[in-house]
Please model this.
Amino acid sequence: MSGPLLQGIVVENHGALFDVLVEGGTVRCLLRGKLKKEKRRRVAPVAAGDRVKLSMLGAGRGVIEEVMPRESDLSRRAAGSVPLQQTLVANVEQAVIVFAAAEPRADLFMLDRFLVAATAAGVGPVICINKCDLVDGEPPRARFAVYRQGGFRLLFTSAATGEGVSELRETLKDRQSVLCGPSGVGKSSLLNAVAPGLSLRTGEMGEVTHKGRHTTSAISYLQLPFGGWVADTPGLRQLGFWEVKPTEIAAAFPDLAPYLGRCQYSNCSHRADPGCALTAAVAAGEVEARRLKSFLQMGGGKQ
Ligand SMILES: Nc1nc2c(ncn2[C@@H]2O[C@H](COP(=O)(O)OP(=O)(O)O)[C@@H](O)[C@H]2O)c(=O)[nH]1
Ligand SMILES: [Mg+2]
Ligand SMILES: [Zn+2]
Model:
């Protein structure tokens, strides 16, 4: 090792190599061997957003020696038969969950899963419905009303017309965020709209999993010209959970919260049980049947 350790922030991951932004530029780094051994159940001990210490090997090349403790960790279960934790992005405080009003029309069950993942990771969710130019007037707002009533922040945007873009810029300003959601909803287009200098590539296929073939585009952590950082993620078709507890699932369902623990029987399955407070709330029109179904699908009803 030569010289003192430099501090930096991981901005991109290319397989076993990590680009770290330090004062004066980017250093392409390997991991010190001891870091690889530390966490066996992880795909990698370092992810975009991590704050690290590194030593230089030569011009533009270095070795990550140390990873600072994380403030948050948005993880998923990596693809494959062995359960491995894959950190998508570290240290973000906010997740902007992007879905489209149309093309592709938002799958609300998938939106609920993203909300659970963000909430469980301690990352504050903001729901962003993009491509509002493709639908007329109120319908998208009505479709997502349950989320607003539950207390979630909602943005309605169009990268094509600029609708809601200044609101998104305000949301990202001076904060550390991740944009996540399925492929093709306009995440990269929105980032280009808030900060044209980023020049992100759009219209590409994100994560595609065929049998025996798995391509994953890199997650890049970008510095915003108006202050703040944002991670652009490739389309995540599914956010397989990493060890999410039933109480953490419940935290993403504020609309159901007032009824939890109020069923007649403590082992209530919330399906057709007598004295179930949740099914009664659905029957009374106080809770959406679809939200209850989503909650139960994720295993949220378990004691
Ligand atoms: N009509 C319309 N098309 C959009 C909008 N935002 C993105 N697109 C298009 O949707 C496609 C996918 O956009 P992209 O930003 O690559 O999506 P990503 O995969 O979520 O990053 C591209 O062809 C974009 O031009 C929008 O607000 N309205
Ligand atoms: Mg993209
Ligand atoms: Zn019940």
Observations:
- The longest strand covers residues 2-14.
